[in-house]
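SsuA/THI5-like domain-containing protein
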Amino acid sequence: MTLFNRRKALALMGGTVAASGLAAPALASNRKIKVGALRFTSHSGNFVAYERGYFAEAGLDVEFEFFQAAQPMAVAIASGDVDYAVTAVSGGLINLAEKGAIKVIGGALSEEAGIDGQKYLISDASYQAGITSLKDLDGKTYAVTQAGSSFHYMGSKMAAAEGIDLRFTPLQKVGAIIGAMKSGQVDVWSIVPHIAKPLAKAGAWHMVGNVSDYVPDYQVTTVFTSAKNAADERGMTESFLAGFSKGVDDYAAAMIDGTADQDAMIDLIHKYVYTDRERAKAAPSIVNGTMRINKGAALNIASIKDQLAWFQSEGLVDTDISIEQLVDPSYVDMIGA
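Structure:
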């Protein structure tokens, strides 16, 4: 099956559907939905859409459910406990797609040239012991949340490029990884800049490389939903994407393009990110977390294909699963199709 871009796919599905794109009037009518999220700056598209009423304008009554890792979010989507979410592609997500439980319907966070992105970090204990570059990490421990997580993918791609072997250590939660890095229990990790930079500045670890150098144009996170919502709740799904996309536009204008008030955007994001800090202390980390979120929720399908191939090569997912089982290409534009 050939993947078409969104316009082609909608045209094939008939004029009624083709007329109901992201810019069209919302079809939802005060639908109550749950949206899964992490308390990261990179999830700000949803936060802005909620706070500025874009979800409400789209006819959606949104409630957030917060998670600490990607794979539990995928399970929550599959079970129907959560309707929509933004998260990284993981082995768990792909396996659920193969079972017909979930569909990727769009793209969110991306590594983009010229915009600061995720970092590879070496713990201070390892650094002081002489491990000062990624090439020095042969045989060392790399922290991941779970086997088959995006951290696993980023670590493996870097190791392959450097010609080294890593021992991947699953620690389940980002907080547990931070603690293990500080105490020197693991040697290396990769994470978004708003976590990497302040702790590097404090000396807890050392930034030694950029993920974009090893995984260019990486589609870090995707927008996904249940297969049922993708197939049977087209109006609600389009309404969600419409609201989300407006939130992303506002976020980009303020935090990346400099065409809107950044201070006001930081105030909004602070309601969800670094809420345990006063605004003045939270602001630098919120700014450091700024990365590109795709306009119109466009999906870099070339990156998703590469990720799927890696999961298959590692034996983390079935070799027979196809990109069509994972992605519904009819909602947004496909980059690199």
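Residues 72 and 92 are 9 Å apart (CA to CA).
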